[in-house]
Amino acid sequence: MFLIPQYYIPKENFKIVTKDEILPYIAGTEDIEAKVVIAIAWLAGARIQEIVNLKKEDFIISDENKDLTIAIHALKFGKMGYPSFSYSDPFVGELVVPYARQFAEGKVFSKSKRRYQQILKNLNLKIHGEDTSKWITFHYLRHSVATYMGRVLRAFPEEFKSWFGHRSQAFEEYYAPRKVDRFKGKFDR
């Protein structure tokens, strides 16, 4: 018997963070490191600790193809998929690539994850005030990327496990069992 694989379809009310929604966070801080951390979290869906642990050699910059590949080392169960982004995205071409190029070697981010979490909390207060229902966290950005991959890109469970650095059956069971049909044509990043 041939089984059609199920796709990750999260809860209906989970929201994909759009570029227009993340721009105030990047524009709202003067700290260039924080801007880059927020941009990578939004683009790749990596955990904050995985981003803070990045080294110069994890940024594979190709001027020939005009793209950037980031080798993110997952905190759980080995390496994540290596997300690749085009320079045409302003976050990549104007923010992440120039920042990554300035380091000869070693760690790219000198601060702890708590510092970036505090910056994001302050940005949330500045942008949305006390209404915490509109706040964005680094973990929320991670789930936003997963939701985008499931709803828009229709990724397979194996792709999720590779991208997000999971091997557990529980991860696959959480992301896989929902049907695609009820979401077709309803969501767009």
Largest sheet: 3 strands, antiparallel
Average pLDDT, rounded to a whole number, is 77
Task: Please report which band the strand proportion falls in: under 5%, 5-15%, 15-25%, 25-35%, 35-45% or over 45%.
Answer: 5-15%
Q: Whole-number radius of gyration?
A: 17 Å
H/E series: HHHEEEHHHHH
Distance between the termini: 36 Å
Task: Name the helicity range.
Answer: 40-55%
- CATH superfamily annotation of the domain at 19-136: Intergrase catalytic core
Walkthrough of the structure:
This protein is 44% helix and 6% strand. It has helices spanning 19-27, 32-44, 48-52, 90-101, 113-128, 138-151, 157-164, 169-175, and strands at 59-62, 67-70, 84-86. It has a 3-stranded antiparallel β-sheet, covered by helices on one side. Strand 1 and strand 2 (67-70) form a beta hairpin. Helix 2 crosses helix 4 (90-101). Mean pLDDT is 77; it is low at 1-11 and 177-189.
